[in-house]
Design goal:
Blueprint lengths: L9 E5 L9 E4 L9 H4 L3 H13 L1 H12 L4 H7 L1 H33 L10 H18 L4 E7 L2 H8 L1 H16 L7 E4 L4 E6 L3 H17 L1 E4 L11 E7 L6 H17 L4 E5 L1
Parallel strand pairs: 2-6, 7-8
Antiparallel strand pairs: 1-8, 3-5, 3-7, 4-5
């Protein structure tokens, strides 16, 4: 269903036909668990462990200074009792290194949590904007434009009104998990608003992003989310906008085009994809 016309930059609207597929039942009981691996790859645990080891070296040095204040030459004291100094050095270094590693791990985990949406476990708006800004700069250098798939749950307010806000939360969680399972590892998935989501596609350009949008739409159309034992499963549809980075475009303008494409899909009847070329 083309939207071409004077002054209208949106060139393609695509509504996919209903597919007969096996229905996926999803029970949403809580946020998506956060993978601890990125926290370990952060580098903070190792840095803190090394700092702890360096601090541990102060134990024998401090004891030698105390002995010097008592009139005992540090070298003579070390030679007289080398095991004591070895114990202070390696024992203190080990304890401080372990403690430093633990502190670094907690710091890395807290940093990772600050990137996440507390309900769905997806990346949040702040982290997504940071990653998108970095990727846009990389795309300019490598001539590989980044693309976005921006989408919104149709009639989400009706779900909250008809089933309650707990059901709405269950839909957000179930949808996030289901879509997350079909994404590639290099595609960044974030919740950027109440019922608004975005996927950053760094490789493959607009065609790859369009194919992803179609996969997401098909997957969600067959999805039924169990929100409560006493209520029937909830089905949803999406309105999706697909855009590709333009030369010289700012992050704000890029996100604005993605948002506009998504709203164009809503205005065109919902449950469809609009591609802004």
């Amino acid at each position: 269903m083309p939207l071409q016309g004077p002054g209208n930059p949106l060139k393609i609207t695509r509504g996919l036909g209903r597919d007969k597929a096996i229905t996926d039942d999803v029970t949403a009981k809580g946020p998506t668990p956060i993978d601890p691996a990125p926290a370990m790859r952060d580098g903070r645990p190792l840095r803190r462990a090394l700092q702890g080891m360096a601090a541990g070296c102060g134990a024998p040095v401090g004891w030698a200074l105390i002995q010097a204040m008592r009139g005992i030459t540090p070298i003579d004291d070390v030679l007289r009792d080398p095991l004591l100094y070895a114990y202070m050095l390696f024992g203190t270094m080990t304890v401080f290194a372990l403690f430093g590693y633990y502190v670094g791990s907690q710091e890395a985990r807290m940093r990772q949590l600050s990137w996440r949406d507390p309900l769905t476990g997806l990346y949040n708006r702040r982290y997504f904007r940071q990653r998108l800004d970095e990727q846009m700069a990389t795309a300019v250098r490598e001539s590989e434009p980044v693309s976005l798939v921006y989408f919104d749950i149709d009639h989400f307010k009706h779900i909250n009104d008809a089933h309650g806000h707990a059901a709405g939360d269950a839909v957000l969680i179930g949808l996030s998990r289901h879509i997350g399972n079909i994404l590639r590892h290099n595609e960044i998935f974030a919740r950027v608003g109440g019922e608004e989501f975005v996927v950053m596609v760094a490789i493959g350009g607009l065609d790859q992003a369009t194919q992803l949008a179609e996969r997401i739409m098909k997957a969600v159309r067959t999805l039924k989310i169990a929100v409560d034992d006493d209520q029937p499963p909830v089905s949803v549809t999406l309105s999706l906008g697909v855009v590709e980075q333009r030369k010289g475009e700012t992050l704000t303008a890029f996100l604005g085009r993605a948002d506009a494409a998504m709203y164009a899909a809503k205005q065109a009847g919902r449950d469809r994809i609009v591609i802004d070329r």
